[in-house]
Amino acid sequence: MLWYKAWLETRARFLVSLLGMVALCSLMVYNGNKYTWPYTSVDYYYGVLQSGHAMLCVMWVLAVTLLLMGGLLRERAAGTAPFSLVLPVSRRRLIAIRVAMGALQAMALVIVPWCAMYVLAALTGKAHSAWQALFHVALLAGGGTIFFGAALLISSLVEGEYTAPAVSLGVALAAAVLLSDPSVRAYSPWNFILGVQYLDRSSKLLVGPLPWMRIAVSILLGAVFTGLSAKAIQARDF
Q: Could you tell me the pTM of the whole model?
């Protein structure tokens, strides 16, 4: 029942986000195939996929922020929180299911659009490297956990249906601006999910091994934000 409730609360936002991301990213890759010489090289087409990935990253952060704007604070504002709180389950379980549903949807919003882009690129005969697709997916899925956790934490601290996502997007934008200086760019979560540090400018390919340590640190920070979010909800008086 709780899983179904969590799905009902987010399905409209999730499905609209998924369809929009698949459509726009696929359209970018498809239009890239329509160019002729000298833009028909494999290098150029991997550049098209990189552009599609950049669009996906921005849309993903926006979509995840909107998906996580619910929860008990939003229900309290809508006057429906007492229904959830009288259910024979703990707040911890309510939070855990919300986080799990959000995480599953967030991963689907990474994998499905990238599968669509890769299949479209492979069908045109211009990009066949599954490793490049997996590299991009790992960067966004792993590095994106920081944005996921931050959005969850803010939605647990800030009331208001639209205030929380506005604050979350503001924080994400501030991080992009404040960490854009070359001296601190290596610490930017935006640059990480975009793959800027690993992109070979000439071949348009991501090079080197997967940055497992950086991915692990991102997941750890996301987990810390998630834990703080759970603590904040458990401490609130509804």
A: 0.88
pLDDT in tens, 38-61: 444 556 678 888 889 999 999 999
Q: How far apart are CA 238 and CA 218, in angstroms?
A: 32
Q: SS3 sequence, the chain?
A: CHHHHHHHHHHHHHHHHHHHHHHHHHHHHHHHCCCCCCCCCHHHHHHHHHHHHHHHHHHHHHHHHHHCCCCHHHHHHHCCHHHHHCCCCCHHHHHHHHHHHHHHHHHHHHHHHHHHHHHHHHHCCCCCCHHHHHHHHHHHHHHCHHHHHHHHHHHHHCCCCCHHHHHHHHHHHHHHHHCCCCCCHHHCHHHHHHCHHHECCCCCCECCCCCHHHHHHHHHHHHHHHHHHHHHHHHCCC
